[in-house]
């Protein structure tokens, strides 16, 4: 399902049979559960922000959770949890890397 060569895995809010996954805030809920898994470990107040290893987003109108491969190296059970969440809920998973936003070129 997931190869070790990609840096990030995108869990998409679309099932394999094309249905939108519910509830509509599933991505935020999953990322919230994973908020304490972060570089340096959990710290006071870390539950108030998302982990850089598990970020909810919307891509092309589809809710997604971007899971960074570093999570697997630091917290294998947490990695298994998110991958099994996708599998158990029949969600589509894509391997890729999230590109940073590039500012537009100045007009001549």
From TrEMBL:
<dbReference type="InterPro" id="IPR021969">
    <property type="entry name" value="DUF3579"/>
</dbReference>
<protein>
    <recommendedName>
        <fullName>DUF3579 domain-containing protein</fullName>
    </recommendedName>
</protein>
<dbReference type="Pfam" id="PF12112">
    <property type="entry name" value="DUF3579"/>
</dbReference>
């Amino acid at each position: 399902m997931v190869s070790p060569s990609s840096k990030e895995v995108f869990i998409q809010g679309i099932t394999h049979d094309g249905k939108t996954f519910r509830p509509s805030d599933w991505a935020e809920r999953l990322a919230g559960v994973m908020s304490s898994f972060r570089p340096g470990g959990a710290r006071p107040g870390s539950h108030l922000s998302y982990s850089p290893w598990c970020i909810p987003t919307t891509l092309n109108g589809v809710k997604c959770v971007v899971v960074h491969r570093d999570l697997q190296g630091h917290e294998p059970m947490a990695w298994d949890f998110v991958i099994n969440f996708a599998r158990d809920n029949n969600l589509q998973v894509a391997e890729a890397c999230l590109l940073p936003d590039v500012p537009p070129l100045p007009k001549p």
